[in-house]
Amino acid sequence: MSLWQVPRCTVAITPKSTSSSRNTHRAISVLRPLALHTPRSRCLSTPASQTEATSTINPSEIAFFSKLSSQWWDEQGEFSFLHRMNPVRMQFIREKLLEVKRDGEYEKDGFRFDRGGQDEGDHVKVMQGLDVLDVGCGGGLLSESLARSGAHTLGIDASSSNVAIASLHASADPQLSPDTFPSSSTRPTSRAGSLTYRHAAAEDLLQEPKRYDAVCSMEVLEHVDNPAGFLETCAELVKPGGHLFLSTIARTPLSYFLTIFMAEQVLQKVTSGTHTHAKYVNPSELISFFQKYRKPSVAGESGRPWISRTYEHGLPTRTEAEVRGMVYVPWRGEWVLAPRGGSLLAPSAQCNYLFWVRKPL
Amino acid sequence: MSPCIVSVRVFLLSRQRALPNVAQRVRKLSTGAASGPHPEERDVVIVGGGPAGLALAGALASYKHVRDSLSITLVEAGDLSSVENWSLNSGSFSNRVSSITNASQAFLKAVGAWDHVENDRTSPIEEMQVWDGVSDARITFTASELGLTAANNDSGVSPQMARLTENLNLQRGLLRHLSASPGIQISDKVKVKAIESEVREGGGWPLIHLSDGRTLRARLLVGADGFNSPVRSYAGISSFGWSYDTQAIVATLSHPPRTPFEPPNTTAYQRFLPTGPIAFLPLSPTASSLVWSTRPPLAAALTKGVSGVLALMINAAFRLPNVSMEYLHKVILEAEAAGTPLTLSQIKDEISWREKSHNIDKHSAFSSMLTESNQTGMPLEHSETLPPLISSIQPGTAASFPLRFNHAESYIGEGKGSRTVLVGDAAHTIHPLAGQGLNLGLGDVECLARCISNTVLQGGDIGSHTALLPYAQERYIENHKIMSACDKLHKLYTTTFEPVVWARSVGLEVINELDSIKAALMLSAGSSPKGRSSHRPGAAGWNRAAQGIEGLAGGFKVASMLGGAAADVVGSGLRQLLKSLPQKN
Ligand SMILES: Cc1cc2nc3c(=O)[nH]c(=O)nc-3n(C[C@H](O)[C@H](O)[C@H](O)COP(=O)(O)OP(=O)(O)OC[C@H]3O[C@@H](n4cnc5c(N)ncnc54)[C@H](O)[C@@H]3O)c2cc1C
User: Fold this and answer.
1) For residue A209, is it within any domain?
2) CB contact set of A251 (below 8 Å; sequence gap of 6+)
3) Distance between CA B570 and CA B556 in Å, rounded?
4) B344 close to B312: Cβ distance less than 8 angstroms
5) pLDDT score, position B149
6) Res. A181: pLDDT tops 90
7) At A158, is the secondary structure helix, strand, or coil?
8) For residues A89 and A83, what is the distance between their CA atoms, to the nearest angstrom?
9) Average pLDDT over residues A226-240
10) Contact B69 A188 (CB under 8 A)
11) Residue A97 lies in a domain
């Protein structure tokens, strides 16, 4: 059973959510808070014109949502590992965007020697003004970080409760909801991004013309019934030259041991049934997907594959795609990004990993 | 000694139990406070404009991406303009000084604040002499011996272990640095009246009510508000500790310059008397600073008494055998209690009589009497083993502070107190025998600023537990090690219990060979980390120091097994001492 069915709540924040695409693959949240099992029959619908505003939440529902919210945003609770993973995801996204930007500048301006002192500035600005889509935003952990970094962020989730939770959480933060905080005038405005949440599946967005500079979908793929279809949808939503970021879990004995045997059964840190090992996707499978996948033909032209060549050890070139393992360091209580390179069989890529691929221009 | 420790433990427990109540009361009280209609939004509210708070503001301002994206306000009850405009004639010095380690200096330089600290008013410490007041066992070490090279400091002249700096000189430098770098709002002469947790589903943010009527809503509330931290009480963080039943007398000392035949006045001297250590810290060729930890009644008598008495007693405290110091303390306190404090000449007579009975030649370096005899310009024999004779105390500089040990149970608030973090004395208060208090605070600030900077880079929420956790993890253990080493040293040395003193005397001589204790006693040395992100190097040394102190005591346990009645006595004495020391470090 896929997670999006779990909340049997009929809350509809955007009318689109009940579109015909229900039975296709969906963006779903990574883990379900236990409270989601509680059947709720109350309905909270909003006029179609007010699709995203947080103010559309019925106050009487707030108490209910905040119970869920306290799970998503309980940093020491069930989601603690996601909270700690978040900076590493952001680091990867940022570094990759920066790298591509610099490669581009290099091609344009030739080699520039003196980059000293600019690094931090570049780091900060690289996401500013980008249109970024977070598919399966859950409680909004990644979406908030993207928006704070200056991206115009749209977070979507097929679970309306998650969207409500994410909206409620963001509404407390003047950086994310500047309109509700008139007195935040003293705030430096250098990095104004924006944040919008919608109750929608990725497929729903295909019908709209808008495409994104970057599409992120973190810890979603391993919960999807039709991963190929899901990847196609995400890929289509990316602008030419844009980026697709994924994080998921490799299907290896190690990942079974860590994410299911240890996390769910032994330590019971994660609700049992959260993960299904057979659904895990290996990096090599993602790579071969994007070796075959072509950007949809424009005006009869057939597109070229996103990954046009790989090295002997199966890894793509750095300018087309990248796989990076994420390793948990228990004594630091921290996730770290595994060093670059190595092979797909390196231990660091045997469990949680990040994947980036760029849509050809 | 041990009964006293037992009572300390009880005190500790009752404190722990009492504290949450205090916190609750504060919170209730705060909720009653009228919240203004429109709280002003801030990303960082720093409460406290002491060295820690100002350094944090300065460090945050030094990261461009931090000051560009965060709104930061510092609130201080006192008048900071008087600190920014503070000035004293050259030659006179404020009585509150701190030895700033090389690591702290490197941090302040990286931030850009050290350039605003008036260098002429600071003095390097190039050598340290530490000795036991009872056994006279002594260790000496120099910066070069510690592998600190001249390249470690700006002067390029000689290697230093630390730099003695008036707190005000540092705070003024930090303020000047802040006014040169925009982006931080400073509200001084404004008191934090109450703090409450905003009522909001899913967890509210701290609301800080100020005495000027404003209310700030903080993404992150930093308690840099000193020992009695209101932020710590708001966050419901309890702390454990005790007061040492000791006061530290501080004063600025005037003395003649060293002769050309003596080493310059860049040596710090510290004598461990059973009543507490007395330290002489060089500020200039003719001025130095005193930190003398002693029993409260004595501190009161000496600081409030006739001005010449303190100078005389300081000279004696570095020179007279301990028995005579004890005797002097006794007569001073008795006279005080009788309402007839001793006059200057009475004390002079007492001291010279005592010196005679110890066969101390009044023309030698070991005499506390200022004599006219030394006009040859030739130094007296062994004069380099003692600080110069104090001729007077700079007027108005004698004061005393109670000493305590205090460590918050956590540096970050949770639950209702979330979005709070503690730095500096709000998180920990330490015995000044090692001159580390401020340096620990600067270490906190350096780490917290780095954490905030990293979180901003990753688009994270700087008030979140996830963002603050690395700070707490890095600093808590490190501070704890240093604090417990200092605490153990204090307890080891403030005893006259014979076997322990014997052990100490042996110990100190053994120590001379031992890196570990040297590290502990060297205390204020720190090497010079390159770049802001480098780890403070002191931790390993402190760890060794703490182990060394335990090893030292453990060694005597072994000695006691060698047999013989004497050894048995020694052994049991040490066992008692060991029991009385906190077990874990
Ligand atoms: C005798 C003695 C000698 C020492 N020697 C050394 C040494 O050699 N080396 C060393 O490193 N350290 C030394 N220390 C320790 C050092 O002085 C302290 O560690 C240091 O001052 C702590 O700085 P801080 O900024 O954390 O706190 P503080 O200096 O205590 O500053 C706290 C600030 O918060 C403000 N505040 C409090 N409550 C409120 C409120 N409600 N509203 C607004 N503002 C508020 C206060 O006005 C104050 O300015 C010594 C200490 C003593 C007592």
Assistant:
1) no
2) A277, A278, A280, A281, A282
3) 8
4) yes
5) 52
6) no
7) coil
8) 10
9) 92
10) yes
11) yes
Per-residue pLDDT at A222 exceeds 80: yes
Size of chain B in residues: 585
pTM for the full model?
0.80
- What is the per-residue pLDDT for B234? 96
Can you give the residue ranges of every domain in chain B?
244-401, 495-580
CB within 8 Å: B38 and A182: yes
Smallest CA–CA distance from B204 into chain A, residue? A172
User: What is the total residue count of chain A?
Assistant: 361
Domain count, chain A: 1
Whether A115 is covered by a domain: the verdict is yes
pLDDT of A58 above 50: no
Kindly report, residue by residue over A239-286, the tens digit of the pLDDT: 999 999 999 888 777 776 677 666 776 666 666 767 777 778 888 888
- Quote the strand ranges of A112-252, DSSP E: 131-135, 152-157, 194-199, 212-218, 238-249
pLDDT number for residue A302: 58
**Closest residue by Cα to residue B46 from B77, B20, B86:** B77
The answer to the question of residue A258 being in a domain is yes
> Which atom of ligand 1 is the closest one to the Cα of B53?
25
Distance of CA B388 to the CA centre of its chain: 23
Is A222 annotated to bind a ligand? Reply is yes
Gap between the Cα atoms of B461 and B190, Å rounded: 27
Q: What is the ipTM of this complex?
A: 0.76
Q: Please give the CATH superfamily to which domain B244-401 belongs.
A: D-Amino Acid Oxidase, subunit A, domain 2 (3.30.9.10)
Q: Which domain does A253 fall in, by range?
A: 57-126+222-358
> Any CB–CB contact under 8 A between B144 and chain A?
no
Query: The domain spanning residue A341 has which CATH number?
Result: 3.40.50
Mean pLDDT by 10 residues, chain B (585 residues): 30 32 35 58 96 97 91 97 93 92 92 95 90 77 63 54 93 95 91 93 89 96 96 94 87 93 91 89 96 93 85 95 93 92 90 90 80 61 89 93 89 94 94 79 96 94 95 88 72 58 49 45 41 40 46 39 33 38 36
Q: What are phi and psi of A135, to 5 degrees?
A: -90, 120
Using an 8 Å Cβ cutoff, are B560 and B568 in contact?
yes
A93: nearest CA in chain B? B458
A89 marked ligand binding residue = yes
Query: Following DSSP, what letter does each residue of A160-200 receive, concatenated?
Result: HHHHHHHHHHHTT-TTT-GGG-TTGGGS--TT--EEEEEE-
Which of B41, B63, B457 lies closest to A181 in CB terms?
Answer: B41
Which residues sit opposite B130 in a β-bridge? B139, B270
The 3-state secondary structure of B429-462 reads ECCHHHCCHHHHHHHHHHHHHHHHHHHHHCCCCC
Q: How far is Cα A201 from Cα A230, in angstroms, rounded to an integer? A: 10
